[in-house]
Amino acid sequence: MKQTDVVRLQQYLQGKFDHDGIKLVQRPQAKDSVELMVDGEFLGVVYRDEDEGEVSFSLSICVLEEDLPD
User: Fold this and answer.
1) Distance CA 28, CA 47 (A)
2) Phi, psi of 30 (to 5 degrees)
3) Whole domain around residue 53: which residue ranges?
4) In the chain, at which end, N or C, are there fewer CB atoms within 10 A of the end residue's CB?
5) Calpha distance 24→42 (Å, rounded)
6) For 19-67, what is each residue's pLDDT tens digit?
7) What is the reported pTM?
8) DSSP H or E stretch at residue 14
């Protein structure tokens, strides 16, 4: 993912959720995605997709059952 995409998307997510603790971190082995971190904790992966000249981003969040309240 291009650094300009990462910066723009991070700013968008921080504004949308009103949370400056949202950070997007490059993944060394995967150039089409970044890790979504919230207050230093891994929350998911954001993927970049380009189809017929249109670019979109999709967010995949993983929540382990053991992390949920009883």
Assistant:
1) 14
2) -125, 110
3) 3-67
4) C
5) 10
6) 999 999 999 899 899 999 999 999 999 999 999 999 999 999 988 899 8
7) 0.86
8) helix 3-16
